[in-house]
Every structure is written in structure tokens, then in C-alpha cells.
Amino acid sequence: MAKATRVLIPSDFTIDSLFFVIHSIEQSTAEELDIILVYGNKSSASISELLGITLEDQLSNLQSEDFLKACQMICHRYENRKLTIYTDILSSDNLNYLQHYLRGARIDEVKVPTDYEFEKRTRHFFDVGQALLHLNRSKQKNVRIVEKPGTNKTGRNVLADLFFNKKWDVNY
What we know:
172 residues, Rossmann fold, five-stranded parallel β-sheet, 37% helix
């Protein structure tokens, strides 16, 4: 059984960010692919927020129903590639934290959209892509970090845009 290639991609959990995910999947030669989409949200200093708000709570606030449906449809579209998509939140842009996260999550490759402007959706947002590129420049990385041109935002963030722009046959 072949080991799945684990690819980390910064995301703002919008439909627009999934264009880069699809492009990355199509460019990959791996038979099995695990995509980990991450959003940057620094930990709060408030004890009530630290104790009361779980990762699942944060993810449910950030991910729309359309975003989740789009991820499911992408997985279904590339089911022959044994594709899985996970989401996570990085809570610090500290280089040591990022390095340990990449090692602990067994990330094989990081793909950063260089010209994509992430949507600030929380008060403590930080640009994960820029933090990972900073890690790449610091030479502390143990994983390959690739910069690729992103895609232009449609600004509409509509599920149909994702699939009709790709000319996929979709049944609702």
C-alpha cells in the first residue's frame, strides 16, 4: 500500500481558495493525496476563549456549508486519486511552532499561493502563506515549500463558480 502524499495548503476557507486546491491536485502526480487546508488564527489571551472555544467550534464558524460541499465534490471528482481533504487552524506564526507542526502532521510538501489575498475572517487572523514563506527563507524547514501563482478571486464566493469554470458535469 502506497503512502499518501500529504500536502499543506494555506486557505481562508472560501470557495475562491479552492481554485488553487484543484490546481494543486491536478499538478500532483501522487496516487494517494491528503490535502490539509490551514487557516491562521493566533491564540487569544482571554482565558475564557482558550478554555471555551474548541477547534471544532472555530472551524464551524469559518467554514460555510458551500465550502464543505465544494470540498466533498472535489473529493468525489478525484476519487480515483484516493483524495482526502482535511482542515485545521494554525494558532501561531512562530517559526518553531510551524516547523513542529509540519513535522508532527507528517507534511511532505507545502504549496503556497503567492498572489492570493487571504480574507481576514477573524480578529486574530494571520497570513499562513507568508509565515510559511518566512520559514522557507529561514532555512529551518524539513519539508519542501513551493510557491505557485494563485488564482484571481472571483469576489462572489459562489459554489457554482468553482465547477462551471472547470466545465465539470455536476448534478445537484
